Amino acid sequence: MSKQLIKQAFQEVLDQGDKAFVPYIMAGDGGLDSLEEKVQFLQESGATIVELGVPFSDPVADGPTIQEAGIRALKQGVSLRAILEKLGQFKENRSIPIVLMTYLNPIYAYGVAAFARACRTAGVSGLIIPDLPLEEENLVVKELQANDIALIRLASLTSPPDRLKELARRTEGFLYAVTVTGTTGTRATFQESLQEHLASLKNICQAPVLAGFGVSTPGHVKELSANCDGVVVGSKIVDALHQNNREEIKTLIAAASSKEQAPAE
Questions:
Q1: Under 8 Å between Cβ of 160 and 138
Q2: 88 burial class (0-12, 13-18, 19+ CB within 10 angstroms)?
Q3: Pairing with 189, which of 16, 93, 178, 195 sits 20 to 30 Å away (CA)?
Q4: 235-242 and 64-75 helices, crossing angle to 10°
Q5: How much is the pLDDT for 227?
Q6: For 84-137, how does the pLDDT look when each residue is reduced to its tens digit (9 = 90+)?
Q7: Transmembrane stretches, by residue range (predicted)?
């Protein structure tokens, strides 16, 4: 049922004319004991899925904000094993799908088969591995399939058309359309060709297409969602949680709704 939970979450949102909103949070930033409450908050605020980052010592795809969150979590001794154990403790208390974002090294150190089983036990529905290319997917695909864990592929701006088609064909859950050439982090603007790129991905992908990297304002949410199925927001969410600015998160999530939002009082 893990993959099905992702499909159902998207269907519920898209069928009512809204766009999907996937917040990224760093597991263990602020302590693992706060994880359940943060996931519950995001669920109640209308998030579609929660992308949960695993702190890692060499996060090549992450910008400064997420790197700093990872360092804070690592200093508290947070590990992949501890994260999965914590997720398992409150899986019955959440309905929102959890997608884990981790680099390949922690999975390899854990043991691929044991990791996949632990994900299923913890109620993880999907996985994003940014440093795993198509050519090396055989390292994990069999075990993920056996445990009903979706492998979500990332499509970059610089990938050639044939590779984008293959990524779109193989992806499970959704296709993560990377909106910048670089690491995560807030951006003021995006390149002019991005909308055309998102629209072309929609044309070749049967799964939902979400835009992520650099999305940081309600305007970005609406702008980028126009030609795809929603957005992933990371650095802005991580910052807002760290600063306890939760109203900002609610405003971002509300921007994915098709309904006109009442102005803040």
A1: no
A2: middle
A3: 16
A4: 50
A5: 93
A6: 999 999 999 999 999 999 999 999 999 999 999 999 999 999 999 999 999 999
A7: none
How many Cβ atoms are within 10 Å of 191's Cβ, its own excluded?
A: 12
Q: How far is CA 230 from each of CA 65, 107, 205, 260, 263, rounded to the nearest angstrom?
A: 22, 28, 14, 17, 22
Residue of 145, 109, 150, 106 lying closest to 127 (CA atoms): 150
Domains of the chain: 2-254 (3.20.20.70)
List the structure tokens of 86.
Answer: 């914590």
Q: Are 137 and 151 in contact (CB under 8 A)?
A: yes
Rg, C-alpha atoms of the chain = 17
DSSP-derived secondary structure letter, 263: P
pTM above 0.85, yes or no: yes
Count of helices and strands (H, E) across the chain: 12, 9
Residue 171 has pLDDT above 80, yes or no: yes
Kindly list the catalytic residues: 51, 62
Q: Sign (positive/negative) of CA torsion 187, 261, 6, 244?
A: positive
